[in-house]
Amino acid sequence: MDCRSHLPEKLLIKYDKIMEVQPREIRRYTTAEGREPFTEWLDALRDRNVRVRIKSSLDRVDQCNLGDFKSVGQ
């Protein structure tokens, strides 16, 4: 999903600074053998609630919602 499809070109954020929307794409690392270590790790987690929370956080990042954060540079 392209974040710009549903957000304004620029967002007004804390401290009255303007920050351009930077689309994020989450890509999963795949080994030469075709394995996805992150997916294997996530699926191996015993606590279902933890898996759901991690997947939910990644979905929010994919939708340009990085949560509460502060810029560390320009």
Account of the protein in words:
This protein is an alpha+beta fold and 74 residues long. It is built from two helices and two strands, in the order ββαα. Strands 1-2 form a two-stranded antiparallel sheet. It is extended, with a radius of gyration of 16 Å. The two termini are 25 Å apart.
Blueprint of the fold:
Elements: E1 10-13, E2 17-20, H1 37-44, H2 48-62
Antiparallel strand pairs: 1-2
Structural class given helices, strands, pairing?
alpha+beta
- Straight-line N-to-C gap: 25 Å
Low-pLDDT stretches are 11-16
Order of helices and strands: EEHH
Q: Counting H and I runs of at least 4 residues, what is the number of helices?
A: 2
| Number of strand segments | 2
Note the main attributes of this structure.
single chain; 31% helix; 74 residues; extended; 11% strand; two-stranded antiparallel sheet; alpha+beta
A few lines on this structure:
The chain is an alpha+beta fold.
